[in-house]
Amino acid sequence: MLENIPSHSTMTELLGQSLLEVWQALCLAIDKKYDMDRVWNTGGKQWDYEYKYRRGGKTLCCLYAKSNCIGFMIIFGKDERIKFEDIRGTLSDAVCRQYDEAKTYRDGKWVMFEPTNTADFDEFAPQPGRPSRSDFVQSGFLKHSLKQRRIKCHTHFNQ
């Protein structure tokens, strides 16, 4: 766990304004749909920061930040991988390629995306009802939240 949560100005300086808006839109959409624990960490060797969404000891997704770049990782467990294969034909070649090239670990397939705008996630959106990790792979994660909301959400940073 990170001792000092980065400030809004630190994140703006690190990412730039346009990527910060993508980061905030992702956070806003996830927070609106999911009741998750959120944890800041260092980003390891490749990233400066990690912002993890967890529930019940399982990670739903992670956002990563480094200079002028954000990463958005979705962890596909066994059930999510089956659902992904069921809808593979409806997804873009780019999403399928990213999924196919991702490394599979004992606890699932970790797929990293590096979005540059909110339109990058038009294919993913949670289904109505009680949300779960598998909602990420069903018909369009974040679709309505990201396209219709470009508001700033400062609750994830120290002011």
UniProtKB/TrEMBL annotation:
<dbReference type="InterPro" id="IPR024265">
    <property type="entry name" value="DUF3788"/>
</dbReference>
<dbReference type="Pfam" id="PF12663">
    <property type="entry name" value="DUF3788"/>
</dbReference>
<protein>
    <recommendedName>
        <fullName>DUF3788 family protein</fullName>
    </recommendedName>
</protein>
